[in-house]
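This protein record is not my work; I was only asked to verify it. Where you disagree with what is written, explain briefly why. This is what I was given:
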Amino acid sequence: MNFSPPRQPAAAKVSRDWPWRLWRWVVAWRRGPLLLRSAGLRLAMIYALLFAMSALALVTFLWWETAGLLDRQVEAAIRADAQGLSERWSEGGLPALVQTIHDRLVENVDDDAIYLVVNSAGAHVTGNLPFWPAEVSDPDIWYELPVSRAGVTSLARVRRVDLEDGYRLLVGRDVRIRAQLRSLLRDSLFWAVFVVAGLGLAGALAMRGLFRRMVANVSATATAIAGGDLTRRVRLSGRGDEFDRLAEAINEMLDRIARLMDGVRQVSNAIAHDLRTPITRARARLEDAASHARSNADLHAAIERAQSDLDSIVGVFEALLRIAEIEAGARRSAFAMVDIAPLLADLAELYGAVAEERGLQLILESSARLPLPVLGDRELIQQAVANMLDNAIKFSPEGGTVRLAASQRANGVDVFVSDEGPGIPPDERARATQRFFRGETARNTPGSGLGLALVQAVAQLHNGTLLLENNRPGLLAVLTLAAQAPRDVTQASSTPHGPDTRAAAT
């Protein structure tokens, strides 16, 4: 015989599966329809919720200050009345209490006072109620119940007070008018809630629409940018509000991206243009040597010339990598206090010989021999000044003078390099520090256009600046370096090292 387990009822299966079903429902709700995933809708719901909570707090306060105030006034009057009647009972007994109640009923102009005194058997003694209400059974408890006075049914708020010898006192007030007022106030607040809800919904929809318009504006611009249209910008409303400031920040970021993209294109074009010539020349020399070389000496000469061309290409890429390393700030961790006066003296001695070979005079001003402490990387500073001297010597006419000077200032050191060459036209100075830029006067001069770009990168790494000015004639280049050092920076040795001219030819 085949035995199979009995089938469990569906209810048991559901009871076991409900946690998994609940979890799937929560996940489905979180992923939910697009409407629930709308940030604008969430913002509108938050606004409506806050508005509703504020309105509810206002309605609660109004109810407390109106209907609650009426109830508190009635209870205070009843409590004071009961206290006074209890005192009259203590002073004169039942006759005094009966007389006091009679007097108060006569003086009650509003006809809202309710009094009743009964004996231990529940018989009526005095008061304007015909019998004791069955609902009022405990003392010191507030009751609100319908009562009949002179054949008219009304609503009363009463309180029981127990006296001696089994007598009971009922003190109250007719609150029918107050109840009607409270009902009117309740209805008014009820309809006010609907009005507030409508206003809150309208405000939420308006806020959602404003948010959607702003997001749609930014989204359309981002979509256009992603599609390749770098000219699109976020529209401004002209109100100068937070959305306009956000749009201005986004547009400024897009302008920066456009400039960077344009710079990348220019660098790519410049690399292709500047490297095409040496590569083509090296290839042509190798082909010529392969076809026409008659001896090993001819082959070696051709290979050496091609190697020289390839070395210049490698130098360009090394300069680019070095600029990228400097701009990334990778060398800032090795900063120390450096006296650049010995560094300038070493460079003046090295490039003085180069200047003499070209019929020039390199003069080191006396100001550059004084102690010049700066916070930075000695090797990079040396390379930057070497590039400045190389450019000055390269573009100076025969018989000219190149000057190297420096001066200490409150927050840094200025290094000056001046020449008497053609200089840089004012309209080209802003672009002179761009990579591979070569002005009209430098078209026929050896180089790749990376020298001043590296100097600019070194200046920015040291929180300084590079300024190009007219020397009349020639160019005056001013490199500013920061001099302040944090307390934890170790003083670097000022022992002069041999100058590093690896990037001087760029």
Q: What stands out?
A: DSSP finds ten helices and twelve strands in the chain. Residues 242-324 form one domain.
